[in-house]
Specification:
The protein is an alpha+beta fold. The protein is built from 5 helices and 9 strands; from the N terminus they run ααααβαββββββββ. The chain folds into 2 domains: 59 residues, 434 Repressor (Amino-terminal Domain) (Orthogonal Bundle); 117 residues, Jelly Rolls (Sandwich), CATH 2.60.120.10. The strands form 2 sheets. Strands 1-2-3-9-4-7 form a 6-stranded antiparallel β-sheet. A 3-stranded antiparallel β-sheet has the order 6-5-8, with no helix packed on it. The longest helix is centred in the first third of the chain and has 12 residues.
Amino acid sequence: MGTHTPGERIAELRNTYSVDRETLAERSGVPVELVAKIEDEGHIPDLAPLIKISRALGVRLGTLLDDHEQLGPVITRAGEAAASARFVTGLPDDSAKTAAVTETAARGHQGLSFKALAADKNGRHMEPFIVDIEPDAQQEKSTHEGEEFIHVLAGELSLEYGTGKETLKAGDSVYYDSIVPHRVLAAGGEPARILAVIYTPV
């Protein structure tokens, strides 16, 4: 599509399908104010609104992340993930200036920095990310259709799932249903790095 942020792609898809913000908000269950922030300011509180918006528009989550798609296997070499496939969530409203950030800018934000590992894979239903979570990242519990797999690469992770809470350390992994309210935070006052794979049904 030639644009670089999920918000810009949402706006382009709305225009293509002649769907206004109010209608998209109604279909997705995402408040119209949040749709506006995502489109106009690049603000992304977490992945759940993007998943709900993509389903309301009838596209895959990956469509909101893609610059272009390739058939066959997509290999992402170390250090080669495109800046357009990297975005930050879990920020206070006033500190989210743009959804697409460079690695240097991402480190300056105290949030969750997502680096998409397969943004060019055509027709995919899984979304693999490397996620860096800062100790003071702000993230509300979210719920959406699908499943998630997380493997902790470094640091400690606090997983809140339903009414339970677990601490995962480097080398630990977890697989859960995303429809149950959940969130992940860094534990122990130090940053955490995880491999997260999100599956959303067609």
